[in-house]
Design brief:
heterodimer; A: 250 residues; mainly beta; four-stranded mixed beta sheet; four-stranded antiparallel beta sheet; 1 helix; 8 strands; B: mainly alpha; elongated; transmembrane helix (chain B); Spc1/SPCS1 (chain B)
């Protein structure tokens, strides 16, 4: 500590240790904050039609188009160390021989829900305005132009979706998904913290963290294949997220 | 000109006395630990991680400001150098230290 340079080195060196200790304390502190997420997830409609994986494909596969209702309160997942949660819904159905092959899972919808203080990112989710609620009139500022990831008057983690279109149509490895039985929709998430570990959804109580209540649909079966002439194209539309421009040709 | 350069070099090098070095070390430890603890508490109670960041960085900046420059409180007890030796031609065996006496194990050596 006898000269300026040595003092700079010493202070900076100890600062790195202190910063690491602070980060560790933040990462552990989330265990002290109770969580009690709840969600109700229901199947609205499911249709199976033939389609192609991409325009130039000669392969014809069966695609399931699943619409759902989701009413979730995940506000308790947002604590001081939550940057965003990645929310996704999977359709899962048992394999042909459940004793040896695990069930198949396919994601039908997902969303990135940022905390209120997270930095702006174009990929984050914009919650649709629920039916019966007038969209707010804003003629004045640009800042209110982009919608929020939760309905009007809510907070991050509130999701109210009615008859929501899927983001992804799903198929099986074999290309056949019609008439598969015992399928369920399940809500999942990743909590992405500012500092610390990525946390998956859980259904068991663990310390102060209660498991997810609900978040699983009733068992359903994929219907039989419908001819393309009997299904309106408008019914098979998918939702696009904020990431729609990712990977598309310039 | 030389005097000016010497002064500039003294400020740049910022040398402090032994008590000052001990004080600077203790100040660093105390201030950084205190600002870390305060930043975590402030952030946790207000549930705002940005407050933790800014309080922590602010405390670190304050520590740098208080510890790094050559503040007068680091030079309260300067240790003076011994006077320069001036050898006398008559007493070659004895070194004249200009009145300063040096004892080693009770035996006078200088």
């Amino acid at each position: 500590m006898h000269s300026t340079v040595v003092r700079v080195q010493n202070v900076f060196g100890f600062f790195t240790s202190a910063a690491f200790a602070v980060a560790a304390a933040i990462a552990v502190s989330v265990l002290l904050i109770p969580q009690a997420p709840s969600a109700s997830l229901e199947l609205k409609n499911v249709q199976v039609v033939k389609g192609r994986p991409h325009y130039y494909s000669t392969k014809r596969e069966e695609y399931a188009h699943v619409k759902f209702d989701l009413d979730a309160d995940l506000t308790s997942l947002f604590n001081w160390n939550t940057k965003q949660i990645f929310l996704y819904i999977t359709a899962s159905y048992p394999s042909s021989s459940p004793s040896t092959i695990p069930p198949s899972e396919a994601v039908i919808w997902d969303a990135i829900i940022p905390a209120d203080n997270a930095p702006l990112h174009p990929n984050t989710y914009v919650h649709p305005t629920p039916k019966g609620v007038k969209p707010p009139k804003n003629k004045k500022s640009k800042s209110t132009k982009r919608g929020k990831p939760y309905p009007e008057g809510g907070s991050p983690g509130i999701i109210k979706l009615n008859s929501q279109k899927p983001k992804y149509q799903i198929t099986d490895v074999k290309g056949k998904i019609a008439e598969r039985e015992n399928a369920t929709l399940t809500l999942h998430w990743n909590v992405q913290p500012y500092v610390g570990a990525l946390v998956w959804d859980n259904r068991q109580t663990w310390g102060l963290w209660k498991g997810l209540k609900g978040g699983k649909s009733e068992v359903f079966s994929f219907p039989s294949l419908k001819g393309s002439e009997t299904v309106k194209q408008a019914d098979l539309k998918t939702e696009t997220g904020g990431e729609r421009n990712r990977g598309s040709p310039a | 000109m030389d005097a000016l350069l010497d002064q500039a070099r003294d400020i740049w090098e910022g040398e402090i006395d032994f008590r000052g070095q001990s004080l600077a070390d203790n100040l660093t430890t105390f201030l950084l630990i205190a600002s870390s603890v305060i930043s975590v508490l402030v952030g946790f109670t207000t549930q705002d991680i940005y407050k933790t960041l800014y309080v922590g960085l602010g405390g670190t900046a304050l520590t740098f400001l208080l510890v790094v420059p050559q503040w007068p409180y680091f030079n309260q007890k300067p240790e003076p150098w011994l006077p320069a030796r001036v050898q006398k031609a008559s007493a070659a065996s004895r070194v004249d230290l200009g009145g300063v006496q040096i004892e080693v194990d009770g035996k006078r050596v200088g």
